[in-house]
Amino acid sequence: MNFIINLLISALVVFALSNVMPGVAISGYGSAIIVALVIGFLTAFVRPILGILTLPINILTLGLFSFVITAIIILLASAIMGDSFHVDGFWYAMLFGVVLGIVNSIVGGLFGGD
Asked: Membrane-spanning regions, if any (predicted)?
């Protein structure tokens, strides 16, 4: 049950950010749910691989390269979703990922997410 609530909250945040940010477009709330699932899947399976491959750069930049990995995950989600979810470029993807992470952390903390 907690997974469904977190998914719906993430979808709501994705939908709200797409309406606020100029470089992000989404076709509807149903697409936002799918985008939240795709981002969650990519974060669970692709991010650890990218983290291992870029470990030396991440150490040299004191962890700041993880923002680049987040932007890559968002751009991959945009490529997978096609016309339903579109991010204009790398910087919009980085900003979207950072804001999405911050808002999800705040909302998860408020609702006692695991």
From this structure: 32-50, 57-78, 90-111
Please, what sign has the CA dihedral across residues 17, 20, 25, 31?
Answer: positive
What is the number of other CB atoms lying within 10 angstroms of the CB of residue 113?
14
- The answer to whether the beta carbons of residues 99 and 108 sit under 8 Å apart is no
In 1-114, the DSSP E strands lie at 24-26, 85-87
Residues 19/38, Cβ–Cβ less than 8 Å: no
Please state whether 52 falls in left (phi above 0), alpha (psi between -120 and 50) or beta: alpha
Cα separation, 19 vs 29, whole angstroms: 11
Structural tokens at position 51: 């983290």
pLDDT in tens, the chain (114 residues): 678 888 888 899 899 999 999 999 999 999 999 999 999 999 999 999 999 999 999 999 999 999 999 999 999 999 999 999 999 999 999 999 999 999 888 887 887 655
